[in-house]
Design goal:
With 488 residues, this protein is mostly beta strands. It has 2 domains: 334 residues, Tachylectin-2, Chain A, CATH 2.115.10.20; 145 residues, Jelly Rolls, CATH 2.60.120. The chain is 4% helix and 52% strand. The chain has 1 helix and 35 strands. Strands 25, 26, 27, 28, 29, 30, 31, 32, 33 and 34 form a 10-stranded antiparallel sheet that branches. A hairpin with a 5-residue loop joins strand 11 and strand 12. The chain is globular and about 65 Å long. The two termini are 28 Å apart. The structure holds beta-D-fructofuranose. Beta-D-fructofuranose binds next to strand 1, strand 6, strand 10, strand 14 and strand 19. It comes from Clostridium isatidis. It is found in: Cytoplasm. Enables the bacterium to metabolize sucrose as a sole carbon source. Pathway: Glycan biosynthesis; sucrose metabolism.
Length: 488
């Protein structure tokens, strides 16, 4: 009873938050077109699905505190990525098998039903971890009904770091892939199968060349794109290098051919999906237009005390949904076309200007989209400065001689200091950048490289300019201010 009352209150408070949004004391870092929690902490996207004409987006949510505890599933629905239902807590940790958290999982639409699978996280009296893979179904009234554990035992040889079922159907059979850890503390992905969604059999480990690649693999997604099998996962425990694994945890993929009989995965090298400091635990789903769409958690369980919104009672957001496109075995990420509907006004539209400095006066907002193509001509370096104010800025730098660049947030007053590096190989650069008050997503070279970062500029730090040592050709520059999503 008490649990039920708590959830009713959470959902009423959420409703109140959105109803009063226009005259509430909402802070300057609240987002315009990224999904954020009304209060509390958000992490992984969960249960992504296209169902009965709507996109279902669930996420990990602690509605009580900005802490990694009490994980619920929140749900928002949208038809067009502009109008959203008010976030509601729909799964709460109130059963013996999920009492310490309804952890991450996924959804599958089967005819007129949406079936969800998630991990029930349980700690026993001594603090030991237990993990149950659980099922819940959406009923006709749109409520989630828990069906309890479908896998309640650990397979031999693995620890209780056993979670995040990603369900899919293949040739009339259901499967889920799970993140797991060998007793030797090495990350793995496991495969289960089922005929009826209730009885699940352990098929075994997905056999990759990555025998020893981090101590735990979280949040796997296994899917097929243009005839290629892809396993996305989030390994923990890789050592940082200059251009790779720059965060505490990573998210990336291997691509090739997966054999469902032998569980052998023939694949190429692990490649990270996003080199920014705020990206983790992405999940993939397909929609009715056969688009393969990925959403990630735009956050990281690191240095969270330095994220200034924590004190304001809310923390983290999701990335924009990105369509995945395969070219030469590389995943390119492109923001969904629907986001063009956020464009209010084309503020700048420039072609072929040769210069070594460009700036705009037209920008009085940090809610915008920039499309930029530059030919470097003789320039060795190009810098894009943005969020520029009296005493701060953020910069994206391209060094053509070294074939590398970086996003530097060290000159910003608030938030985590960071530099994130990337490589590129071209005399022409293409930048597609979305700035949303405290979230920046940068798609480079048509989405070959992506960098996502939370930033917390001061009021009025909206300066945007391009600086180069020598003349460059700004072949194309378009700048739109962007509007905001609506909750109803
Ligand atoms: C990844 C993760 C998952 C887990 C969830 C708990 O960020 O640790 O493995 O299910 O978050 O919130």
């Amino acid at each position: 009873m008490e649990d039920l009352k708590k959830i009713i209150d959470v959902n009423l408070n959420s409703e109140m938050y959105y109803k009063n949004m226009s005259n509430s004391s909402s802070d300057k870092w609240r987002l315009n077109y990224h999904l954020e929690p009304p209060f509390g902490l958000l992490n992984d996207p969960n249960g992504l699905a296209y169902f009965k004409g709507e996109y279902y987006i669930f996420y990990q949510w602690n509605p009580y505190k900005c802490e990694h505890k009490d994980k619920h599933w929140a749900l928002v629905k949208t038809k067009d990525f502009m109008h959203y239902s008010i976030p509601k807590a729909v799964l709460a940790p109130d059963e013996w098998y999920d009492k310490d958290g309804c952890y991450s999982g996924s959804a599958i639409a089967i005819e007129d039903k949406l079936e969800l699978f998630y991990t029930g996280n349980v700690r026993d009296d001594k603090g030991n971890r237990e993990a149950y893979q659980c099922r819940a179904s959406l009923n006709q009234d749109g409520e989630l009904v828990k069906k309890g554990p479908v896998v309640d035992k650990l397979p031999k040889g693995y620890t209780a770091h056993f979670r995040d079922p990603y369900i899919f159907e293949k040739d009339g059979k259901y499967y889920f892939v799970l993140g797991a850890q060998l007793e030797e503390k090495i990350g793995r992905a496991l495969l289960y199968s089922s005929e009826d969604l209730n009885k699940w059999s352990f098929e075994g480990e997905i056999k990759t060349d990555y025998e020893n690649f981090g101590y735990m693999w979280e949040c796997p997604s296994l899917f097929n794109l243009d005839g290629k099998d892809i396993l996305i996962f989030s390994p923990q425990g890789l050592e940082s290098e200059e251009f790779r694994y720059q965060n505490i945890y990573q998210s990336g993929y291997i691509i090739g051919k997966f054999d469902f009989e032998t569980l052998n995965f023939k694949h190429g090298e692990f490649r990270e999906l996003d080199l920014g400091k705020d990206f983790y635990a992405p999940q993939v789903f397909k929609d009715d237009k056969n688009r393969t769409i990925m959403i990630g958690w735009m956050g990281m369980p690191e240095e969270e005390d330095k994220y200034p919104t924590k004190e304001l009672g809310w923390l983290h957001c999701l990335t924009m949904p990105r369509e995945l496109i395969l070219k030469d075995d590389i995943i390119y990420q492109v923001p969904l076309k629907e986001f063009e509907n956020y464009r209010i006004k084309l503020l700048e539209d420039t072609k072929n200007i040769i210069c070594n400095e460009w700036n705009t006066d037209a920008l009085e907002t940090n809610s915008y989209e920039l499309l930029l193509e530059i030919d470097r001509l003789e320039a060795k370096k190009i810098e894009l400065r943005f969020l520029e104010g009296k005493d701060e800025y953020s910069s994206l730098v391209f060094n053509f001689e070294e074939g590398s660049g970086f996003l530097d947030n060290n000159k910003l007053i608030n938030g985590v200091n960071s530099v994130r590096r990337f490589k590129f190989n071209n005399d022409k650069i293409k930048v597609h950048m979305f700035v949303d008050k405290s979230a920046v997503e940068i798609f480079l070279q048509d989405g070959e490289t992506v960098i996502s970062s939370r930033v917390y500029p001061e009021e009025g730090s909206t300066g945007l300019r391009i600086l180069a040592e020598n003349n460059v050709n700004i072949k194309d520059l378009k700048l739109w201010n962007l509007g905001e999503m609506l909750y109803e």
